[in-house]
Amino acid sequence: MKVKSEVLALVFVLTLATLMVPRAQSAGEANPAAAGDVNGDGSIDIMDLTLIGRALGTDRQSPHGNGWNQWNPSSDIDSDGRVDVSDLATAGKNYGKNRFIITTNGPVTEEFLALLGRSGASVHKVYTLVPGVAVTIGKGVLSRITATGYVKAVYPDGVARAWSQLEGGFLAWDNDMVDVEHVLPDIDGRGVYVAVLDTGLVPCWRDFLPEEKIDTVHAKAFTGMVPTDYPAWDSDTESHGMHVVSTIAGYYYNYFGNHSYVYGVASGAKVIPVKVLNNYGWGWWSDIAAGIEYIALLKPELSAPVVISMSLGGGPSALVRMMVDEAINAGVIVVAAAGNEGPAGMGYPAAYPEVISVAAVGWTFNYYQLDTYKEIWWRYYLYDDVTVPSEVYVAWLSSKPNPALGQTDDLLDVAGPGVMVFGPYLAEGAAAPPWWAIYNPSYPVDYMIPRQYLWLTGTSMSTPHVSGIVALMLQLQPGLNQAEVESLLKSTAIPIPAGSYLHPVFNVLSVWDDNDAGAGLVTALTALEALGITP
Predict the structure, then answer these.
(1) Among 431, 392, 192, 480, which Cα is nearest to 308's?
(2) Is 358 helix (H, G, I), strand (E, B) or coil?
(3) Entry pTM
(4) Tens digit of pLDDT for each residue in 115-135?
(5) Which of 55, 69, 356, 469 is most buried by a 10 A CB count?
(6) Domain that holds residue 506
């Protein structure tokens, strides 16, 4: 593998902000260069948000300050000595202050859409389950629109980002940690759909993922490619979505010339890729809400259990919460990543009490007896005691409830493997060699892993493990509802007692309390045994 042991933080935009159409600066308005014009081009635009997102990822999450995402001092808009969420919010507000979500009194009518059109508004989405629209509109015009009888409420549109971090590392261990080997092959999620709301898949996804496990008929995109506006669910270039999907569906892998299939947590389930994040790894809440609505409306057509898995998050969004509630009411199970902000607090939608929220944990034995484990452990034998609590630690970046934000311990539900999870990830772009590429056997062992696979860390990685286990549960009991699934997961999770762990490779100290992994580590074995199944 060409990626060494440095931590390459690839973290994108998080903000409660709204979208602004570029316009001339008015008298008395703040100079953009002083509040978010990071690249100094005279305007607050998508590149400023991306640069700040990159700097945020390095400053907040990377144990080292190296890699291509160097911290940029010009991103520290509020001059507090660090690049953090407040900088993103400031830049986002300057960039996005004219993008809104308008809910309506009753279904959206042609007359209301015509009124918006005459007012110069750009309508991005029209919603059915929660009647309303997502628009870009001038604030002065918006005030006149809200005075009509059509409008029920107005919310600023906001941004969510993928919860992941790139890392160099060793071999995968995660499926053993959740005891998938004890339930395969009979229990594999068959007959269940898992909708992964993320960046979509890369164009060459068939080189890595089994085609029969991807529901190409119902795959959908709600955001366009970057830099073009053409929407396509398999036009991603960021790869976050493919890595997440691979945890559920499994993937192909070339190991020392052996072309193998690596099992996912729910290899028999059908995965529906829903692109709600763009190719920089972030997306508007209005697009995410549209993706949730799409799956909720699709469920009756599927006539099968459905799980929504969201490895993303940001600030609160009223529309997203309403759509989550509608999806749950429709019988969809909703799982979301807690976030990568540590003690700063949980992201949304995971922090909504009705959502099954997922923290990230790691396994201490990833870093012992490396000569034995790093090449062959995951391929040739299983370590049956992976889930011994003393060998599990809470990841340093895993978000915890923040009382200052009104978040209580009960909002964090369970945990899954989320440190150095292995899977396909095209760090060098979609033109990277396919999984079956031949590589030079004379390379040192550390470089024998093709460069189209990476170890990622974050609650983005832990979430699909839990979503996959939910699919296994629904295979056996398809009538389970959200509250029942959450209760079963929490009551069967393996508690992770308070402790600390110094990461031996990255020299990062994790310190956690009894509740920082929620009820504890979820495993397929304990969850299914609670259903009366003994695999």
Answers:
(1) 192
(2) strand
(3) 0.77
(4) 999 988 889 899 999 999 999
(5) 469
(6) 161-529
